[in-house]
Amino acid sequence: MKLTVKVNKKICSSILALSIGFGAAAFSVDSVYAQDNKIQYDDEYKTPSYIIENWEAPHGVSKKEVALSYLEEQFGNLNGDFKVIKAEEDEQTGIYHFKLQQLHMGIPIYGAEQTLALDKNNNITSYFGTVVPGIDIKSTNKDTASSKKLAINRAKQAIEHNIGKVEEYDGKINAEPYIYEYEDKFYQTYLVTASTTEPEVGYWHYFIDPYNGRVIDHFNAAEEVTAFGKGVFGNKQKFEVLQIDNLFGMHDTTRGQGVQTFDASDDMALVTSVSKMFKDGAAVDAHANAQKTYDYYEDTFDRDSVDDNGQPLLSRVHVGDNWNNASWNGTYMSYGDGDGERFHSLAGALDVAAHEMTHGVIQHTSGLIYRNESGALNESIADIFGVMVQRENWLMGEDIIADGTHALRSLEDPASLIESRTQKPYPDHYSKLYTGDLDNGGVHINSSINNKAAHLISEGGEHYGVQVEGVGREATENIYYYATNHYLTPNSDFSAMRQAAVQSAIELYGENSAEKDAVEQAYNAVGVH
Question: What is the reported pTM?
Fold first, then answer.
């Protein structure tokens, strides 16, 4: 079947607009690609979630024109537009990566992002992402200041209805237009995102109908670690501060745009001391751990803070009344002191801090949506880099346990711990995937499946009768960072995670490498294909 295409080749500054005419039922699962097991289809949209191949580029054309040609061939019978939102060459591998956003009538479709990889000869080696066909919105409102203001006000009303009066939001409240699918219907919306610490920690996502201000859908994407902690452990830390007149303040100006730590119990004031000796143990740990995590990402991946552009790392300690949690809300890391019975102070754990800040990295790379399988991957990747930064073991949050529980989660042996919501062992195989409504569709519960795969890639071992030869922590962290930075997209599921990790291993270490074999066998072992 020949696919027809309508291409808009207008290039505006650094953004390439790809306009492709396509209709709804375009793809067959009996494709030649599927026969080679190099293509995976999205269950809902029946469009590819990934394609791995070696698509030969036309001669004498630019990389942008190669991308146009490839998308014309793959999606030429659908109806919509794409734009490139990022294009860069990876210096380590020489692979050129495009990141794209699908549009409908000029408005981004929520979660519909794609990546393309070009080798040194400009041939396409992979596609990952979500393409949404059959959008039936006939016309859209213009993005206006008044409609944006209405959406923000409506979201604020809804937030405060849920959690109480918010005296001050953490940073700017943003509103961006999106086409959003809810209960099998597409809506033009504004996605309003707002961050709060009091009266409740939240990274609120509200989808508001600009026609009438109705809330279409909402969720809280503030990642929370359900921890078990108490107090500060007396460990000695060294960290940078800023001297302000006769005071020393927890404001480090040597990393990115700064690392700052605030006291939520003192009107969110910067933590200070009259000498170089700080006595607030929670603040000491939070500040030092933020610096250590920044240094890990810079030293390991040459990444400048969570957004790779020096975003300030802001921590708040003593949040809530003996709050048994820690959270990243898009702006701040927030740490509770624990209740002294179940939890120690959550600020005291380096792996918890690294976990929280990795959510910031994910926010600025793959953008994994914090629900269902994509949310479980979001949680898992945060766990993986939590243990990579701490570099001690394969346990998450063991330092903050006060009630005798072994840890929050174990990447080595997930099933050794009971998940509090289900009162069942954490799943260690895809056949045990939780499919209920708890925990945003199991974002914490199911993270253990991918966690186990990561442990097997690094350390090896036998799992459900599958033997894996481990390749070590360094290769494992490189593979997961590369996959997160270049291949995963907001709606990626476990199958896409497997293929993204395989593709990353090939590009970093080679087609016939032990690293590629380890990835494939690890995901076989946890039942992800």
Answer: 0.81
Active site residue 364: no
DSSP 365-406: TT---SSHHHHHHHHHHHHHHHHHHH-S-SEESGGGB-SS--
Given the residues 205, 444, 463, 486, select the one marked as catalytic: 444
Q: Which residue in the list 356, 379, 419, 477 is annotated as catalytic?
A: 356
**Token pair of 184 as six digits:** 């099998």
pLDDT confidence of 223, banded at 50, 70, 90? low
Indicate the length of the chain as a whole number: 529
Pairing verdict, β 48-55 and 39-41: antiparallel
Provide CB contacts within 8 A for 214, sequence distance 6+: 154, 208
Active site residue 462: no
Which residue, among 26, 23, 20, 81, has the nearest Cα to 48 in the 3D structure? 26
- 385 token code pair: 């880099």
State which H helix or E strand residue 486 sits in.
helix 473-486
Q: Quick one: which of 322, 399, 319, 420 has its CA closest to 355? A: 399
Q: How many CB atoms lie within 10 A of CB 201?
A: 27
The answer, yes or no, to whether residue 212 has pLDDT greater than 70, is yes
DSSP 122-163: S-EEEEEE---------------HHHHHHHHHHHHHHHHHHH
Predicted confidence (pLDDT) per residue in 107-129, tens digit: 999 999 999 999 999 999 999 99
Q: Is the Cβ–Cβ distance between 37 and 121 less than 8 Å? A: no
